[in-house]
Amino acid sequence: MKETRILLAQAGEITPTSAKEYGAVGGYQGLKKALAAPDKIVDIIKASGLRGRGGAGFPAGLKLSFTANTPADQKYIVCNADEGEPGTNKDRVIMEKVPHRLIEGMAIAGVAVGADKGYIYLRAEYPYVAEILEKALADARENGFLGTDILGSGHNFHIELFIGAGAYVCGEETALLDSLEGKRGEPRFKPPYPGVAGLWGKPTVINNVETLANLPGIVANGPAWFRQTGTETCPGTKLFSLSGNIANPGVYEFPIGTSIRTIFQEAGGGCPGGKKLMAIQTGGASGNIIPASLLDTPMDIDCCAKAGATFGAGDLMFIDDDQCLLDILENLMEFFEEESCGKCTPCREGNTQLLYLVRKFKDGTAEDGDLELMLELGNTMTGGCLCGLGQASPNPILSAVRFFPELFKTKSTQKGRVS
Ligand SMILES: Cc1cc2nc3c(=O)[nH]c(=O)nc-3n(C[C@H](O)[C@H](O)[C@H](O)COP(=O)(O)O)c2cc1C
Ligand code: SF4
Fold first, then answer.
1. What Cα–Cα distance (Å) separates residue 363 from each residue in 155, 340, 407, 410, 414?
2. Residue 169: CB within 6 Å of ligand 2?
3. One CATH from 3.20.20.370, 3.10.20.30, 1.20.1440.230, 1.10.580.10 for 325-407
4. What pTM does this model have?
5. Ligand 2: distance of its center to the CA of 344 in Å?
6. Which positions of the chain have pLDDT values less than 70?
């Protein structure tokens, strides 16, 4: 099965920064439609069934409606381009190859909710992407797609590029907003949600790059067109980031609902060197680790949840049977311990303790009761942490205990490292 390229249809075919070239292949048609009938856009996006591509899968139309329905003198569109989840590279490809698709999506969102200002919060480690975006933004302004009185419609929409703080937690939407306001990036207590009180307390739509990049196609071609691809509850295509022990790592676009096996074999080319696949970490560093026996799981939010996998932002890290899962868990927990912002106790202390316990299993020094303690701590963090970082960081461990229980031996059951 070949890729289904919709978001990336023009990737490699046009000069990325050129608004004219993008316009010549159908670009900016959605914006023109939005400018002609701004009041219809929220309903069109709702009818399309588009769900957020940043990890949580929140309905995009509903999110737009919160901001559209909140009266304010100033509203904002914020694009979350922080892309800090280890293993996620897909937003980079959109911004590098088809940046006007993102710019158009933001402008459509602005017109739909009555916002005249947008920010792109860009991952600090993507300086070359910043150059591309700046050029594309300048070209969009020059050609009348951005700025004051866009395309003579009377609508204004300005976009500013903001370089992120280089912290994983700043991808969390409210920490991102604090960072954008010039503060230390720490998650806020919710409610209020950003849709009602976001950037500088004003109603703010905050969406992932890929979510926003879907708006032009939906508005130009209609919700029924969008629903032709993907699944009933999760329409459209998805950019999947493939990494780990895979012959062809990279970013590939497939309809949502495509099985992991198809993506693994057709795009990824299987494990290199004829190695045997042992496990897959789904949904990024904070996603579940599932066994190779679940390779036929469709990559769809609901199917993943049912199977014990994580859809997340569409990351698939493949792990062959030469690897030690406990090494991988240790590496992941080191990341979360480092990236915890420290605002709440279960995450600040919990990640350190989870790392300590994983190391005990890895070193063969785990004692009776350590597994129960690890599970209790992980479940407490899932329910008790303030933001998604601490809520999700135990996922790799909890899923590994579920699917690979033989790894978690104590001194009394088996001494030594198990891999
Ligand atoms: C620790 C953490 C990091 C996150 N990083 C990102 C990120 O890099 N990009 C992103 O779009 N969403 C990220 N999110 C999710 C955002 O909080 C938010 O749900 C998302 O930007 C909403 O966009 P969407 O509705 O278009 O998916 C992160 C969440 C957490 C808890
Ligand atoms: S869960 Fe972790 S990252 Fe999130 S607010 Fe609490 S300490 Fe900070």
1. 63, 25, 11, 10, 12
2. yes
3. 1.20.1440.230
4. 0.97
5. 5
6. 414-419
